[in-house]
């Protein structure tokens, strides 16, 4: 793994607003619109999965593999 | 491909730049949002993009700016994808417009620069309840790009 690569825990922490913010850059992590867009994107993936070529899609929080509902 | 200069946050998750055109100077913002999903150990990142609302201090992905610079703006957003991946890792990037019109704009941007994008990324689109490789002439509901 590349040393700059985001680790699962790090990125989830960062998204909760625990990293340094440069004033010149908007911090969207508490932005309701950004969070809504993320929720919608998650819902889209939950419904449709991702291309099967990518391999199994796993839920980060539960570790469960996603299966497209029949 | 013409692009705006953008600024990157030191976390390489947030980016912003200014669109300049007939409607004035409009600040745009991009954020890569970690989703609840991972494939092959890589978290899928959602590309969230829109106008920066200075008054409310938030991004607005619902506005239609029409600043006569659509291709330049989309090329700039695409540049941030490259920088994000270069700096933080080869994450799958998911993109879906806030409306069908916005998603269509993404598609037009991909179409206009398809050869260049495909030289760097695999592009998938969601079409008729299935993810398929991107192709012209289909109206996709969402996109997924993966660095080659």
Overall description:
- The complex is a heterodimer of chains A (70) and B (148).
- Chain A is built from two helices and one strand.
- Chain A has a domain at 7-16 and 28-47.
- Chain A starts with 7 loop residues before the first helix and ends in an 11-residue tail after the last strand.
- Chain A has 70 residues and is mainly α.
- The longest helix of chain A is centred in the middle third of the chain and has 17 residues, at 32-48.
- Chain B has one domain (7-147).
- Chain B is globular and about 40 Å long.
- By secondary structure, chain B is of the alpha+beta class.
- The longest helix of chain B has 19 residues, at 70-88.
- The relative contact order of chain B is 0.16.
- Chain B is built from three helices and nine strands; from the N terminus they run E-E-E-E-E-H-E-H-H-E-E-E.
- Chains A and B meet through helix 1, helix 2 and strand 1 of A and strand 1, strand 2, strand 3, strand 4 and strand 5 of B.
- Strand 1 (57-59) of chain A pairs antiparallel with strand 3 of chain B, so a sheet runs across the interface.
Question: How do the helices and strands line up, and which of them pair or pack?
Answer:
The complex is a heterodimer of chains A (70) and B (148).
Chain A: H1 8-15, H2 32-48, E1 57-59
Chain B: E1 7-8, E2 14-21, E3 24-39, E4 42-53, E5 58-60, H1 70-88, E6 93-95, H2 100-112, H3 114-120, E7 121-126, E8 131-133, E9 143-147
Parallel strand pairs in B: 4-6
Antiparallel strand pairs in B: 1-2, 2-3, 3-4, 4-5, 6-9, 7-8, 7-9
């Amino acid at each position: 793994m590349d040393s700059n690569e985001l680790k699962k825990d790090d990125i989830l922490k960062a998204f909760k607003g625990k990293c340094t913010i440069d004033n010149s850059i908007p911090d969207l992590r508490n932005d309701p619109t950004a969070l809504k867009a993320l929720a919608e994107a998650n819902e889209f993936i939950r419904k449709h999965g991702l291309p099967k070529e990518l391999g199994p899609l796993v839920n980060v929080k539960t570790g469960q593999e996603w299966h497209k509902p029949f | 491909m013409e692009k705006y200069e953008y600024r990157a946050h030191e976390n390489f998750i947030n980016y912003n730049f200014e669109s300049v055109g007939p409607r004035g100077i409009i600040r745009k913002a991009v954020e890569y949002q970690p989703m609840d999903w991972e494939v092959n150990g890589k978290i899928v990142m959602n590309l969230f993009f829109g106008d920066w609302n200075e008054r409310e201090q938030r991004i607005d992905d619902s506005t239609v700016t029409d600043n006569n610079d659509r291709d330049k703006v989309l090329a700039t957003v695409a540049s941030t994808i490259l920088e994000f991946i270069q700096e933080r890792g080869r994450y799958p990037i998911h993109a879906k417009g806030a409306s069908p019109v916005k998603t269509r704009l993404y598609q037009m941007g991909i179409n206009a620069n398809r050869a260049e994008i495909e030289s760097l990324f695999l592009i998938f689109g969601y079409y008729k309840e299935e993810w398929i490789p991107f192709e012209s002439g289909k109206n996709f509901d969402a996109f997924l790009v993966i660095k080659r």
